[in-house]
């Protein structure tokens, strides 16, 4: 490993890999550090693998702008490089009159965000498209997709390597010292502890991004960077329910997530989830006692569902800036020169729609870095 690099990226999830692939086009001396033995073992692969359209988010937010831009970039990238995806489409279902009003609000928000292919569905139109789904109304988003996230990350990884970036696994960043215009970074790997100098440091560590910001010397409470872990669990459906629905079926979203929905994998596998439970620790086990709650929630719009159809599947953790008392917090993508840390770029709270937004986030960070040079 060189003693000095132009850009160091901490975290080899889908965001860190996308940033590396983007930066490596123009910059030399790029290195990524990942504490796990390979890329994308946490938030990047413990999700629904959905390409979102940008329906839900306030129109001036980074979540909205980068989701819409990222969706278009992802489809172009997948088509060009043979990365698997499938435009199944999704329907958000309202089960009562109050939810119909919320559905209409979501439709208007989607229109403000520039999404032109949304269609409000009556009960009859919903039934015609999805006979096994029950609801008062629906909102159809035909361009929502399921994507092969591993293949996407493998592409970004290969692209970054081919363009000269170095990616180092089993390496944990344990110290960051700002030396004015540069950063002395201390790392721990199998050979022990060592350090090197980076001109620019990108913190893309997902669940640990607030800790890395704190390690760099930022008062995360003062600047509002404290993350809240929000767990999402999935239950798989029996194979005899394989053709239960043809599209992704979503409820009206809740405070902390988009709600327990029917998720269809590229292989046809069906899951219910994720739920949203704030937790204190990272734990990827599935709580089997949640099965009845999943069943009762989904039964509202899937009347044919039976309790025995459900089996525990998997879980993920969202790195949320939004506390249980808040309605919305946007992505933080910030060059920290204004608070005394020039050359440090923090990405905090990159949850959904971070996967969809990944190529757009990479371009956003690349523009920041270009302005620094």
Regions with pLDDT < 50 over 5+ consecutive residues? none
CATH class of the largest domain: Alpha Beta
Instruction: Name the CATH superfamily assignment of the largest domain.
Output: FAD/NAD(P)-binding domain
How many beta-strand elements?
Answer: 20
Could you say which overall geometry the principal axes of the C-alpha atoms support?
Answer: elongated
Which class of secondary structure composition applies to the elements? alpha+beta
**CATH fold label of the largest domain:** FAD/NAD(P)-binding domain
Strand share of the residues?
A: 25-35%
| Main pleated sheet | 8 strands, mixed
The helix count comes to 9
How many structural domains are formed by the residues? 2
> Whole-Å distance between the termini?
23 Å
Second CATH tier, the architecture of the largest domain: 3-Layer(bba) Sandwich
What's the gyration radius in Å? 21 Å
Order of helices and strands: EHEEHEEHEHEEHEEEEHHEEEEEHEEEH
Mean residue pLDDT: 95
* Percentage of residues in helical conformation: 25-40%
How would the blueprint of this fold be written?
Blueprint: E1 4-10, H1 14-23, E2 30-33, E3 50-51, H2 62-81, E4 85-86, E5 90-94, H3 97-112, E6 119-122, H4 123-129, E7 137-141, E8 145-147, H5 149-162, E9 166-168, E10 172-178, E11 183-189, E12 192-203, H6 209-215, H7 220-223, E13 228-237, E14 248-250, E15 261-264, E16 270-273, E17 277-279, H8 291-299, E18 310-320, E19 332-335, E20 344-348, H9 354-372
Parallel strand pairs: 1-2, 1-12, 2-9, 5-14, 12-20
Antiparallel strand pairs: 3-8, 4-8, 5-7, 6-7, 10-11, 11-12, 13-16, 13-17, 13-18, 15-16, 19-20
Helix pairs in contact: 1-5, 1-9, 2-9
């Amino acid at each position: 490993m060189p003693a000095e690099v132009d850009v160091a990226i901490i975290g080899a999830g889908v965001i860190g890999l996308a940033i590396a692939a983007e930066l490596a086009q123009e910059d030399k001396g790029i290195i990524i550090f990942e504490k796990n033995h390979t890329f994308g073992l946490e938030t990047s692969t413990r999700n629904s693998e959905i390409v979102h359209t940008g329906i839900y988010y306030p129109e001036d937010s980074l979540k909205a702008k980068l989701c819409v831009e990222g969706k278009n970039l992802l489809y172009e990238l997948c088509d060009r490089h043979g990365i698997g995806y499938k435009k199944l489409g999704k329907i958000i279902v309202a089960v009562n009159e109050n939810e119909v009003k919320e559905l209409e609000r979501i439709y208007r928000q989607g229109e403000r965000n520039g999404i032109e292919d949304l269609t409000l569905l009556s009960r009859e139109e919903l039934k015609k498209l999805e006979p096994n789904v029950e609801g008062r109304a629906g909102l159809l988003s035909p361009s929502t997709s399921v994507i092969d996230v591993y293949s996407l990350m493998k592409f970004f990884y290969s692209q970054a390597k081919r363009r000269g970036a170095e990616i180092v696994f089993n390496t944990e960043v344990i110290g960051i010292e700002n030396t004015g215009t540069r950063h002395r970074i201390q790392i721990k790997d199998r050979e022990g502890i060592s350090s090197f100098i980076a001109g620019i440091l990108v913190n893309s560590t997902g669940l640990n991004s607030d800790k890395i910001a704190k390690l760099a010397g930022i008062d995360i409470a003062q600047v509002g960077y404290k993350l809240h872990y929000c767990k999402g669990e999935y239950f798989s459906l029996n194979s005899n329910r394989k053709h239960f629905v043809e599209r992704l079926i979503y409820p009206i979203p809740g405070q902390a997530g988009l709600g327990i929905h029917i998720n269809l994998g590229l292989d046809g596998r069906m899951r219910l989830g994720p739920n949203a439970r704030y937790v204190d620790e990272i734990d990827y086990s599935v709580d089997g006692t949640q099965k009845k709650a999943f069943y009762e929630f989904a039964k509202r719009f899937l009347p044919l569902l039976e309790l025995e159809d459900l089996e525990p599947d998997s879980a993920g953790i969202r790195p949320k800036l939004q506390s249980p008392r808040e309605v919305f917090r946007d992505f933080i993508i910030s060059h920290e020169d204004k608070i005394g840390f020039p050359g440090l770029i923090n990405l905090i709270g990159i949850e959904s729609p971070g996967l969809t937004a990944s190529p757009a986030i990479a371009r956003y960070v690349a523009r920041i870095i270009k302005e620094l040079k």
